[in-house]
Design brief:
This protein is an alpha/beta fold. The protein has helices spanning about 15-25, 45-50, 70-85, 100-105, 110-125, 165-175, 185-205, 225-240, 245-250, 255-265, 270-275, 280-290, 295-305, 320-330; strands spanning about 5-10, 30-35, 60, 65, 90-95, 130-135, 140-145, 160-165, 180, 210-220, 290, 310-315. The chain has 14 helices and 12 strands.
């Protein structure tokens, strides 16, 4: 495994996350990614903190949605992050998901077109161009990043699309610098993803070798195998109920998803998750996560790499995060 990334969401206190980033950097990890998923933690504030306490590791958004930030603000945000950590920032964008988007008043429509417009305008702004663009989702007239004090040269901020469905994967292959494949999916999913990425790349006269393929993987490592499995079980219980796109991609039966949903509220409480977690079997955990002893986790992650993932991004669902970092640093 040449490159490995660390994925942080809300399982750790933010200040603990800073220590994890520094530890991962010291162990040679390639990147750290901050989630922005449920209404729990903004990605940009932690990214700035991670960039400030590190010197080499790349820092990515994994992923922010393309609906809630004005395109000018989005570009200015990543310009600012690049000022803090030049050439170390990665912009991961995703199409978000219902019912969360709908519940906060966002009417998602034509997600492929919306993503295409966002990537085009964002890339041009970060290239320090003066942009006029009249699309269906973005309307800008003669705008540019207004840098009076600081670097005016184009910024190298790779744009990755967080894709789950085949059409978005194909779009990523066509227009993005790379893709971030969702977690809680079997290794066979990566085979399908590579086919769609290749199809998209061919449209743009590229090949899969031109596209970074990052695979998010839920990874819980502990010398106590049952403890590691239980940490992933709790996360998976919540996500199968609340994120239908993940449930669909994971291959879990609709009956199981509905049964979990009948127990969990929104947002789910710890007690509700404990009552429903028995519905997530060991067999499922072994199929769609990398959970267990260090040796088991390594073997499972290697399977995704063997299927074509450029590098894995490991989400510590609980378990022993220092042991997780040590395990994959040694690999």
């Amino acid at each position: 495994m040449e490159n490995v990334g660390l994925y942080l969401q809300d399982a750790h206190e933010l200040r603990e996350g800073l220590s994890c980033v520094q530890y991962a950097e010291g162990k040679g990890f390639h990147a750290v990614w901050q989630a922005e998923s449920r209404l729990v933690r903004d990605a940009i504030v932690p990214m700035a903190a991670y960039a400030a306490v590190s010197s080499r590791i790349q820092v990515g958004s994994g992923v922010i949605n393309n609906w809630t930030r004005n395109i000018g603000l989005l570009a200015a945000t990543f310009l600012t992050l690049d000022d803090l950590a030049p050439d170390r920032i990665i912009c991961g964008l995703g199409a978000w998901w219902d019912p969360l988007a709908r519940n906060v008043g966002i009417q998602r429509r034509k997600p492929l077109l919306a993503m295409r417009e966002t990537v085009e305008v964002l890339r041009r702004l970060l290239n320090m161009e003066r942009v006029t663009f009249h699309g269906e989702f973005h309307q800008v007239e003669g705008i540019e990043l207004d840098v009076v004090h600081g670097r005016r040269e184009p910024r190298h901020v790779p744009i990755m699309i967080g894709a789950t469905g085949p059409k978005m994967m194909e779009l990523a292959g066509e227009i993005a610098d790379g893709v971030v494949l969702n977690y809680c999916v079997p290794v066979e999913y990566t085979d399908q993803a590579m086919e769609r990425l290749e199809a998209g790349a061919n449209k743009a006269g590229r090949s899969c070798e031109d596209i970074e393929c990052h695979q998010l993987i839920v990874a819980s490592v502990d010398h106590d195998r049952e403890k590691a499995l239980d940490a992933s079980r709790q996360l998976l219980t919540q996500y199968l109920a609340q994120q239908p796109h993940i449930a669909k991609a994971s291959g879990v039966s609709q009956e199981t998803v509905q049964e979990i949903q009948s127990i969990l509220g929104w947002p789910a409480t710890h007690d509700e998750i404990q009552r429903a977690k028995h519905l997530v079997s060991d067999e499922l955990l072994e199929r769609i996560t990398a959970s267990g002893t260090p040796e088991e986790a390594l073997e499972r992650v290697q399977a995704y790499v063997d299927r074509g993932a450029s590098y894995p991004i490991l989400y510590s669902a609980g378990g022993d995060i220092q042991l997780l970092i040590d395990t994959f640093a040694a690999a």
